[in-house]
Amino acid sequence: MSNPLTDLVLGFQGLVADVPALVQPLIVAAAGAVPFIEGEGAAAIGIIGGIHPLVAVLAAAIGNLLCVAIVILVTSRVRAAVTTRRGALEKPTTARREKFEKAYHRYGTPGVSLLGPLLLPTQFTAAALTSTGVSPVRVLGWQAAAIVLWTTGVTLIALGLIRLAG
């Protein structure tokens, strides 16, 4: 039985191998926009596909960040429309939302953004932060920091492991 995420990663790897070198970073950026692959996975796809690690990291992080920026923009507009239409009506609280709000109150925007990738894709974290009323600019700034740190850190670890194995 195949795993859809594994199939998607393998599909991106095959695509990177099949396109001209100039197009490869665009494929890596597209992979970075996919939740659960994100910048970290996309950088690995690029490096395995033979792209220079710096190019792979930049393309992966840019793809992830562009997707997160779109999520933040859309979520911000939806929130504005809903709060304008509903006025001060309370939203029903779910267990997942309570868990997020507890983490938010404990760690704030920086902590949730930087630690969020351990549990959820950055797109989900960005949408959750923006939907609670955190400034879209603040969310984007911290998400950008998280994307750069996680993508770079995981890539450096992977490159170190590749060097040790080789």
Describe what you observe in this structure.
The protein is mainly α. It is 78% helix and 0% strand. α6 (122-131) runs antiparallel to α7. The protein starts with a helix and ends with a helix. The model has no long low-confidence stretch (mean pLDDT 90).
Short description:
It contains 7 helices and no strands.
What's the layout of helices and strands?
Layout: H1 4-18, H2 24-32, H3 38-48, H4 53-86, H5 95-115, H6 122-131, H7 136-165
Helix pairs in contact: 1-2, 1-3, 2-3, 2-4, 3-4, 3-7, 4-6, 4-7, 5-6, 5-7, 6-7
Content-based structural category: mainly alpha
Mass-distribution shape: elongated
Task: Give start-end ranges of low-pLDDT stretches.
Answer: none
Radius of gyration: 18 Å
- β-strand percent reads under 5%
The SSE string, one letter per element, is: HHHHHHH
In quaternary terms, these chains amount to single chain
The count of strands amounts to 0
The chain-level mean pLDDT equals: 90
Q: Span from first to last CA? A: 32 Å
Number of helices: 7
Largest β sheet strand count, sense and barrel closure:
none
Helicity level, as a percent range?
over 70%
Q: Which short descriptors sum up this protein?
A:
mainly alpha; elongated; 166 residues
